[in-house]
Design a protein that fits this description.
The complex is a heterodimer of chains A (90) and B (507). Chain A is 20% helix and 42% strand. Chain A is α+β, with helices and mostly antiparallel strands. Chain A has one domain: Phenol Hydroxylase P2 Protein. Chain A is globular, with a radius of gyration of 12 Å. The two termini of chain A are 18 Å apart. Chain B is mainly alpha-helical and 507 residues long. Chain B has a single domain, classed as Ribonucleotide Reductase, subunit A. Helix content of chain B is 61%, strand content 3%. In chain B, helix 9 packs antiparallel against helix 10, helix 9 runs antiparallel to helix 13 and helix 12 packs across helix 15. The relative contact order of chain B is 0.10. Classes of the chains: A alpha+beta (90), B mainly alpha (507). At the A-B interface, strand 1, helix 2, strand 5 and strand 6 of A face helix 3, helix 9, helix 10 and helix 13 of B.
Chain lengths: 90, 507
């Protein structure tokens, strides 16, 4: 399907609040569960917000912590202190 | 409420200081003398500063996160070894997929480490230079963690012990080895296109994601852990791949035809190498998560489709023969497993015929091809086995000059006819499995005519001797132990004894 971006994360305790945040902040995102990992697809654009994850874990979450649980991705990425964005056409 | 997020400098500022800020223009030596390799391929770069790492990862953050990944990984590995994790896998046949991984893939991680170190020195732009340095360290980490993890299986199962020696010599391992040798002997931009873009971005998901998920499903805690730990670096490698392509295309319009040619070449080379993974997924995992065809649809047709649609604004098109590769996704795993079954006597892992349940799964996953073309062959071989006439192919196969795979693949549109192509170069005729492989040769005949082809080398007397036993000795293959069918192997005896002991305890 054209224009789909995706992020795959490990399905573990550390990634779960990140997965939850993504699904909350991207209403069109769809999670596909496989053994050990979750592939989240979203049309056009997907955002991971540091604020959302921080709220869920009760401490300041740095978007660079994504490096600990990311498995794969599709799309062009842009990251700063507040969020990580996957999109096409950037 | 969480406290407000405060940092002395933001990520973009830190990234600028820790990369650009560490670079300088040379004064008493010419830049061209200091960086002699990044111009000869014809790629024109007008402004290196336009490069940016989208993760904006700096070396200090890199060490911090890598250190944490390592601590986690080694805690699991230690626990796996301490708790006899090998007893928990689905079936000992599974271990053969790990043998193929260690002998075929792990040495490529080491090659990647070496070549990214080369690029980490020799790329003029500081952004990609720093990214290449990090990737070089990643690749060394991958090689080391894979060897550490799999060393536990080496204590209990055969076929692992001689993996670096085998990688350099064994016939089917020349397929992944020559793929990487080809990339490492190319210029830096072709290497980036080959490994960072075509392999890491377009194709590597097909290797790691379904395979590691398959390891999770088959109870292999250790492989899942090193696999996902490595894969977490892979996301960064993928961004390097896509950035390098965009960067080359944005820098100068003259770069497009060069980049397109490399994308075509390396897509096709990668597709052929991944045929080994197709076979692992469809035939070697006792518990399967998805078929190769399904993985191809998700990771090439769908994800690759979105990618190439995005890149079309630069004039880049979908790789040549992508349609042929998609058609082959219905055939490649069956044809490869059939090759290994026939040559089990020369394989460093065990083979078997799929059982009824497994053939049922293959019929369901491959409704267009399995029952029509492949089931009858496996059933015939099963009947031959039952009569005590197990089929061995004792002739050495003709190899494709480019991909080095035995010429067992069929014609596009006709799965009953083997494909053959040939080209003449300096009075010698060279043979190919496909149009894709022939095109690659025709573009660089001087390079590919020098390929070290295992079968040719055996016939020339360079591989230990004239008969199979001599060659296997030269491979360091323990005959009757490492090779042949799973049924009757020492691996199987050991596994069956463990299962019997477990039953006894259960009463």
């Amino acid at each position: 399907m054209a224009g789909l971006v995706s992020i795959t994360l490990q399905n573990n305790d550390e990634a779960r609040p990140v997965i939850e945040s993504i699904l909350h902040d991207n209403p069109n995102a769809e999670a596909n569960y496989m053994p050990g990992a979750v592939k989240i697809d979203c049309p056009e654009r997907l955002v991971v917000k540091a604020e959302s994850v921080s709220e869920r874990i009760g401490r300041d979450w740095d978007p660079q912590e994504i490096h600990l649980t990311i498995v794969s991705m599709g799309g062009s990425l842009d990251e700063d202190d507040d969020e990580l964005v996957l999109s096409w056409g950037a | 409420m969480t406290p407000p997020r405060k940092k002395k400098m933001n990520l973009k500022q830190r990234y600028a200081l820790m990369t650009r800020g560490l670079d300088w223009e040379t004064s008493y030596q010419k830049m061209d003398d200091v960086f002699p390799y990044d111009t000869f391929e014809g790629i024109k770069i007008t402004d290196w500063s336009k490069w940016e790492d989208p993760f904006r990862l700096t070396m200090d953050a890199y060490w911090k996160y890598q250190g944490e990944k390592e601590r986690k990984l080694y805690a699991v590995l230690d626990s796996f070894a301490q708790n006899n994790g090998q007893l928990g896998i689905s079936d000992a046949r599974y271990v053969n997929a790990i043998k193929l991984f260690l002998t075929g893939v792990t040495p490529l991680e080491y090659q990647a480490h070496r070549h990214f170190a080369h690029l980490g020195r020799h790329i003029r732009g500081v952004g990609p230079r720093v990214a290449a340095q990090m990737q070089s360290l990643d690749e060394l980490r991958h090689a080391q963690t894979q060897i550490h993890t799999i060393s536990h299986y080496n204590k209990y199962f055969d076929g692992f012990a001689e993996f670096p020696h085998m990688h350099d010599r064994v016939w089917y391992l020349s397929v992944p080895k020559s793929f990487f040798d080809d990339a490492c002997s190319a210029g830096p931009f072709e290497f980036f296109t080959a490994i960072s873009f075509a392999f890491e971005y377009v194709l590597t998901n097909l290797l790691f994601v379904p395979f590691m998920s398959g390891a999770a499903y088959n109870g292999d805690l250790a492989t899942v852990t090193f696999g996902f730990s490595a894969q977490s670096d892979e996301a960064r490698h993928m961004t390097l791949g896509i950035e390098v392509i965009k960067f080359m295309l944005e820098q100068h319009p003259d770069n497009l035809p060069i980049v397109q040619k490399w994308v075509d070449k390396w897509f096709w080379r990668g597709h052929k190498v991944l045929g080994l993974v197709a076979m692992m997924m469809d035939y070697m995992l006792p518990k399967r998560i998805m078929s190769w065809k399904e993985a191809w649809e998700i990771y090439f047709t769908q994800a690759g489709g979105a990618l190439f649609e995005d890149l079309s604004r630069y004039g880049l098109r979908v790789p040549k023969y992508a349609d042929i590769a998609t058609e082959e996704a219905e055939h490649i795993s069956h044809q490869n497993w059939a090759i290994f079954y026939q040559y089990t006597q020369a394989a460093g892992f065990h083979t078997w015929l799929p059982n009824d349940e497994e053939m049922g799964w293959l019929s369901e996953k491959y409704p267009n091809t399995f029952d029509k073309y492949y089931r009858p062959r496996f059933e015939m071989w099963r009947e031959m086995e039952a009569k005590g006439e197990r089929f061995y192919n004792n002739a050495l196969p003709q190899l494709c000059q480019t991909c080095q795979i035995p010429m067992g693949y069929t014609e596009p549109g006709d799965p009953t006819k083997i494909g053959f192509r040939d080209s003449v170069y300096k009075g010698e005729r060279y043979h190919f499995c496909s149009d894709g492989c022939k095109d690659i040769f025709d573009d660089e005949p001087e390079k590919f005519s020098q390929a070290w082809l295992p079968v040719h080398q055996i016939f020339q007397g360079n591989c230990g001797g004239a008969d199979l036993s001599d060659v296997l000795k030269w491979y360091h293959m323990d005959q009757g132990v490492d090779n042949m069918d799973y049924t009757g192997s020492p691996d199987q005896k050991q596994w069956d004894a463990w299962q019997a002991a477990r039953k006894k305890v259960a009463g």
